[in-house]
Design goal:
Blueprint: H1 2-31, H2 34-47, E1 62-63, H3 71-81, E2 88-97, E3 100-108, E4 112-122, E5 125-135, H4 159-175, H5 182-185, E6 194-195, H6 203-216, E7 221-232, E8 235-244, E9 247-258, E10 261-271
Parallel strand pairs: 1-5, 6-10
Antiparallel strand pairs: 2-3, 3-4, 4-5, 7-8, 8-9, 9-10
Protein name: SnoaL-like domain-containing protein
Signal peptide: 1-25
InterPro entries: NTF2-like_dom_sf, SnoaL-like
Length: 290
């Protein structure tokens, strides 16, 4: 009788421990910040960490990278296609704005690249992904790379103010081309505007020279539509659609704001392929309104 009772008690303890373990895992999943989940998923491309896949909703994962099939199956197929041991991931910056997390990453992903990734979360799980990738280049005329520069998030109380500033800048200067208004957004000193675009030097003078050179070569940079502005504190990401030299492109521009002025800029510009080359039908944009 005592042996039977002991066996029942032991089984009960094991079952309770399993329940506790399961609850703890679920609680841990829910308590982990979305920003950390997004970074873990990106790192898993290099490490193969299977835990990170649990941060993705397996039944509802919408993919906007047009070279990747939809859902987890599409993501898995790309990972399988990577040459073994070739993937490298170094997340330089990560930010959160409501249900969105956006990151700035140094990749080796079918070759050296710089990328912005955007993830949308629902109930603690990733349900949608966008990105914009560009080839890594040598430092620009001011010696800056596509990834170096400030990383510290500050001025959280100014997030909405800074987002409004960038939205105004994109609309007024980049879309409407009203360069007479640049002084409202950027101060005139060379060190007042640090530039990480591969071919443009620091300051308004560097930007003006680059625009003159493009005009001389007959290259037009057109911003047609601003799809989304995301921010956390002093960092704001603008996602736009337009053309560069007549080619349909997606512009991702990351700005750092200080005391109501834009002081630093990073970007990637990615061509958007013709629809018959898409691996999914979700489009490059299609953001849910903030």
């Amino acid at each position: 009788m005592k042996k039977g009772l002991s066996a029942v008690l032991a089984t009960t303890v094991i079952l309770c421990s399993a329940c506790t373990s399961q609850i703890s895992a679920e609680e841990q999943l829910l308590s982990l910040p979305n920003k950390d989940k997004a970074v873990a998923l990106l790192n898993s491309i290099e490490t193969g960490d299977h835990q990170a896949i649990s941060y993705v909703n397996p039944d509802n994962y919408i993919q906007h990278n047009l070279a990747v099939g939809d859902g987890l199956a599409g993501f898995g197929a790309v990972l399988q296609a990577l040459p073994k041991g070739s993937a490298k991931v170094d997340v330089k910056r990560a930010f959160q704005d409501g249900d969105y997390v956006f990151t700035h990453t140094d990749y080796n992903f079918f070759g050296p690249k710089v990328g912005f990734d955007v993830f949308r979360f629902e109930d603690g799980l990733i349900v949608e992904h966008w990105d914009n990738l560009a080839e890594k280049t040598s430092p620009n005329p001011s010696g800056r790379t596509q990834l170096d520069g400030q990383t510290q998030v500050m001025d959280l109380e100014k997030t909405e103010q800074n987002k409004a500033l960038v939205e105004d800048f994109v609309s007024t200067v980049l879309m409407k081309g009203d360069y007479s208004q640049l002084g409202r957004f950027i101060d005139s000193g060379e060190q007042d505007y640090l530039q990480h675009n591969s071919v443009i030097a620091d300051g308004l003078s560097g930007l003006a020279l680059a625009l003159e050179q493009m005009t001389a070569q007959g290259i037009k940079m057109v911003y047609d539509k601003n799809h989304l502005v995301l921010g956390e504190g002093n960092f704001v990401l603008s996602i736009s659609e337009g053309s560069l030299g007549g080619e349909h492109v997606s512009y991702y521009d990351l700005f750092r704001i200080d005391e109501g002025k834009i002081v630093e800029h990073w970007d990637t510009i990615e061509p958007i392929p013709a629809k018959d080359q898409w691996k999914n039908n979700n489009g490059k944009f299609g953001f849910t309104a903030q």
